[in-house]
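Hello K.,

You asked for the raw outputs rather than the summary table, so here they are, unedited. I folded two proteins back to back in the same session to keep the settings identical. This is the first:
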Amino acid sequence: MEFKELKIGNLTAKIPIIQGGMGIGVSLSGLAAAVANEGGIGTISGVQIGFREPDFATNPVEANLRAISKEIKKAREKTKGIIAMNLMAAMNNYELYVKKAVEEKIDLIISGAGLPLALPKLVEGTSTKIAPIVSSVKAARIIIKSYLKHGRLPDAVVVEGPLAGGHLGFKMDEMLEKKYASLKEIVKEVKEYIVSIESEHSIKIPVIAAGGIRTKEDMTELAEAGADGFQIASLFVPTVECDAHENFKLAYVNATDDDEMIIKSPVGMPARAIRTNFLTESMANGCTISKCYKCMPGCNPLAIPYCISTGLINAVEGLDGLIFSGSRLSGINKISTVKEVIKNLIEQ
């Protein structure tokens, strides 16, 4: 099967692949630009993006705002392709960070981990496109109903299934007992709904499948279910261009399916991660949290087993920490390049 171009408004990606945003610091300008140069859409993760700024510990908001500008500009220097930014709707200062990315003329905002209902007003009057992430047709209906009140529709919808990495849009018991619909089933339901919206409003809204996609066969099956494009993250971690430390990349290469863990994140949502000493020990015994970055609303440092920011930052810097990943890691067994990953997916 040959895949068509992915068109999101006036943006056209030659190959229908969006590199998923991975934070903290796993997908920055280096990885995003490399994917964009191959004809896909590269995504910078905006989550705690200022972690390397000198004042991050004392002034994380300003550090993050500064780093958003820096990373978008760095990506623009490396590519003329399409660059997106992924920002979690649930985090503190979400609107401030979206506005900064829009100010820097980011092409596309992709947003999940909560319902990103504020996006239409945040991009109003700009050329920035918006793509909410949903895990059910119910969520898609809620978002579109809300967006229509602002006189617009999403430019694309990302449908993230139960095999995705990081925070998941499913209940904890659904994940632990594997009582969930497949990505293919969810894509089909969302596509049917989106087609009705397209017909009613004479507009095209591409549906992007995401979560655990590993092969051309996966992509073909999802395309037959109605997907117009594919968001892929984990395959791009063990690449030369990925912005994470070599140890982080090797954690993916060395992991087996048995190393997958479904955890309750300090954020309060189910999440999929790779088993590490940091994760298992802190979940069993807890750890002292000496610094709160106030990244999430309602987070109580006295009641959580570990600081999610500290765990993710340690991991991306090559130390023992928290490593989110998608499912089906057994097929990821070497360090390659972005070009090779994309070639394998398209020509496999």
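The second followed immediately with the same parameters:
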Amino acid sequence: MSAIILDGSMVHYEALGRGRPIIFLHGWVGSWRYWINAMQVASTSFRAYAIDLFGFGDTVRDSNNYSIEKQALLLDRFLNEMGIGKVALVGHDLGALVAFEYLKKHYESVDRMMAINVPLQYDLLALRMRTAPATELAEWLTGRQADAMTALSDASKTDPVAVSTSMGSLQADSIFPHVRNFGVPCLFVYGANDPAFTAVPSPESNGLPMHMHQINFEGSGHFPMLDNVSQFNRLLIDFLALDSGLSPSELQMKEEWKRRVR
């Protein structure tokens, strides 16, 4: 286990590989652990990091640092302490919100971003997501599939206050309008069968600008990286392989990929 002390607080992380840096940020259910497969794939060309946010996994519990803004400050301090410059970010639900919050203040430091099953509006979250404990959500969102439950084994370590506080931050402030015009390439990925949402957002409803693009995984739920491992990892590598500055909409031009995601 690797850890770093940031402002007196212990933050757990794991790292694999060498090359340009990529940061994986987990969501409300689980920890860094469900990124292991994606990290292994990315580590062939990248230095892959996965962080446990405050109140999750093996990072310290500190209710003063549970807002989305404070979690983004954790990311900023981690990058500074590790001497990481321009970075690719991959975030899942809460992790994507944290990445967007970081983008608001440090867009020049982000090369590209993948936002997976991110709720851009609080009212899109199913009531159960807002009220149930993380262990119950892990069972519900995965259908108790053995491999997925193993990947989410740290759900029991989640501080419920970390979930409620960050969801309160989402309810109080809409992050997306502040970041959509920075020009940072962003790929939205949604599981078409995600029970966490009352409705999966559509590209049309979001009105995505040219540097942003959305891909939906048919037959996938809240954890595309666990439900469709090979497809997700191929999409991740294709996205990371795009030349800097190119829109992720270029991915839709690959007929091979279009066949894979249907």
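The first helix runs from residue 36 to 42.

Happy to rerun anything if the numbers look odd on your end.

Regards,
P.
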